[in-house]
Amino acid sequence: MDPGDPACDPASDPATRDPTGDPTAQSVPTGQDPLLFLQSLQMLWSTRELRQLREEAWRGFAALDDPLTSLLDMLDGSQGWRGRGPSLEAWVACELKRWLQTRPRPRPAQGSPGLKQLQARAVRVLAESPPSLVEPLVSIFQLQDADRSPLLAHIHRLHQEGRFKEAVVLGTKLQLQPDLDFETMSAPLLLQDKVHLVERYVDSLPDLQQRLLALLDSWCQPGFDIRVVARWYPQVTSVRLERLSPRELSRQVLRLLERYGLDPALCPNMITQQHLAALRYLCHKRLVERSLSQESWAEHVQGLVGQNQWLQEQLLQLLTAHNDAAVVARCVLDLSLPTEQLPATVATELNRLRLQEGTTEAPFEDREDDHYQLPIAREDIHFLASWEALSRHQEELLQPGQVVGVDLEWKPSFCAGGRPRASLMQVAVEGRVFLLDLPKLLSPAGGPAPRAFSRLVSRLLSEPSVTKLGYGMAGDLRSLGASYPALAHAEKQLRGSLDLLQVHKQMRVVDMPAPGVDGARGPRGLSLLVQQVLGKPLDKTQQLSNWDRRPLGEGQLVYAATDAYCLLEVYWALCREPARFHLSGDLARSLRLGRSDRSRMQEPPRLQKALASPRQVPAEGVAIPEVRARAFRVVCDSMLQGLARSLRCLGVDVLVLGAGEDHRRAAEACNCDQYLKVSKDMMKQLVWLGSHPEGPSSTAGVSPGCCHPTGLLRSFPPLFLRFGARAGATHAVSDLP
Questions:
Q1: pLDDT tens, position by position, 565-618
Q2: What is the 8-class DSSP label of residue 363?
Q3: Which keywords fit this entry according to its UniProt record (predicted)?
Q4: Are 442 and 486 in contact (CB under 8 A)?
Q5: Backbone phi, then psi, for 291, in 5-degree steps?
Q6: Furthest-apart CA pair in the chain: how many Å?
Q7: What is the sign of the dihedral through the CA atoms of 195, 196, 200 and 204?
Q8: Would you give the distance in Å from CA 281 to the centre of its chain?
Q9: At 469, phi and psi to the nearest 5?
Q10: Is residue 435 within 8 Å of residue 424, measured between CB atoms?
């Protein structure tokens, strides 16, 4: 430990006890000269023998007639403490403070002439003392209770000399903030980006905290020039102008508002700057990325701008910077913005639009063919706003063994106040999507219907046999729990989930951008994953729409359903061809099942039912003749090429039909008239078994080379496996007629 370091806990350091071991034993004679005492410690100080130095110091303190007066005599008679860096005098002051704390002894009474004289001397020392001496002098001489006039005069002198940090630190130590002008004390430090010192200065003082926010907010005022403030303090030579822009100051104000728990309405200029930043973002989304609908853009912008003339001018500047006059004119018309300063081309286009009736959407809207399309009919999208309607679909949502996609939507927020509450929960199952109106289903809080809905959500999340798919699911569930106390434990209840965001991070796709490195106008996140796996990105124009509005628009309903259902299709596609994306065949097992209870599960509960046919499962004790893999002939359509490759690896004779071939001629290729009917459920069980080589316990002892883990194929002659595809869907499993 550096002997010059005063930071030491006297309660935990054995050296804070009397080094002699006997608090009553004093063999050192009293009346020792303070300067001689200081000289006697100099040798030990130079060798950094801390323990021995402390023992000698404590013996010396006991030998002094008046330790307080002696300390001031030492400081007056030496010069070492006036320089920079650790000094013996500062160390002695810190040790004397500790010694006094462990040795209660009579001190001059507060307000007595003797103490006032000592305090006056201590204040004169403070005028030249480094920061390391401030704390012990304030404590030893009780300066926080002393006459404030000389202390305030000293702080003002420090400030006039340009020693702003020392002035603020001393004012904080002496608790003199109420007697000092806040702006005068804090502004120089804020100009130097020393906000942390000002935060300490206002700590536990709510009035000063509000004044700090008001000062910073005044610097955020539109058109305010911070260099004017800098000229008031010529001693400040290192002004951090880059840290004093309205954007940076707004961030500081927002952080302090959250720290102090104050109302953002106290900072109107910060709110205006936030609105401007939001306008820049929305104009970029609408005019550059083209990923926001005109309707949603106009709604958000109108709420941000309102009647604020300055924001209207800023918005017009943002719009006119875009070179598409038709788009700018449409925006001006939708928002009823002032037209006096519009460019001539925009004004002409605006007049043309006003003459038209039923003006259509801006011409650059993306076409449907450019994006992934929901493969289910509109009537299969169910918007559920009551427990009575939802309860009719409980069994469908909780069906064991199925895979569901889960997503959330909430109204975007562009101002201070935290993340808004979740407004919609989407749950997609094969062939259907359920849109759950959370505000309706969870109100009134504590009612019987909200309690029933909360139990349903908990059962769905905690059921390990139902695979829940999401993209950043943990964050969504945290938002859900923060929005509704009844679902506060949603994230902890999750079992049997697969976060496709984690899968996405491990994917490698040839000739496709990696997540997070694509261009500004390219797809990101889930949209990028859908493009990489299914060929087209998601249409995100409704992502930033108002999800609190009721009724939701048709575009919002389709978007919400698409966001959840695409998770299923991505999962199915990855399971069919994991090698294409350099993933293991069993995604759930390789990426996250080790962290859930599903790793300890037996085969899915419907497996035994699926294998219950007498043709497939013979009576117990009957010997089953094994049929080697090469004895099988399998025909797959073009959508099951991944299965075909897996079967070929086992030695099965596989024929893959082209997309245009007639499947009724497939039997001729196999020269057989027997069909194995494979339902969706059966196919899921086969996929599950194929990814679990150990299989059920009844399959132990299967010889190598057999194309089965369960004995399912042993009792069949050469077969034709036919898998059809439902119209409009991309999965390749359906019931046969």
A1: 999 999 999 888 888 888 765 554 544 443 344 333 333 333 233 333 333 333
A2: T
A3: Exonuclease, Hydrolase, Nuclease
A4: yes
A5: -115, 25
A6: 119
A7: positive
A8: 19
A9: -100, 140
A10: yes
